Amino acid sequence: MSNNSDYRVRVLIVDDHAVVRQGLITFLELQDEIEVVGEACNGREAMQKVKELKPDVVLMDLVMPVMDGLTAIKEIKQLWPETEVIALTSFADDEKVFTALRSGATGYLLKDVQPNDLVKAVLAAERGEVQLHPEVAKKLMHEVIAPPKAADNLEELTEREREVLGLLGRGMSNKEIAREISVSEKTVKAHVSSILNKLGLPGRTHAALYAVKRGLTVQ
Description:
This protein is of the alpha/beta class.
């Protein structure tokens, strides 16, 4: 982050659709406070560009070939923590939102975001301020304040289910959990469904919060 009033926020745009990238570049380049320094079509290329260009902010699509955006966010924040990343996607499902934020994303926006709001988000991210699409903010607020229906049913879980619950609390996706415990994604989904049913929780984000609150995420 720079205190220089003439400083332009350096942005890298990552999306597997060239039309989307070009549209973002065309709009953002009109902003006096922003400079688009590069573009990438997948997470792996994004990591190389971050290494080369050292952008202040990365606008990261999530569903891409070669390396998806969620994986790229985690890797970028581990290797270059000073670079802020905003997820810019069409998807607002619980798993992607929670995983992106747990991985270090500074913001989560949907692609229907108003152009001026996108500019505000980029400038805010460069200051380290979290920016969320209204739909995502509403979803997360609901997830956080909604109390678990049955907070005392932990003993009903099997050892494997407790393990999966702890990994959910660490922000892992079903794919990452499957790799971690050497089972199929289908098996992980079955475990997650069973966990939600036994604990009386409406979604995986509730389960992740449950795990965090009960100290099940300690590695």
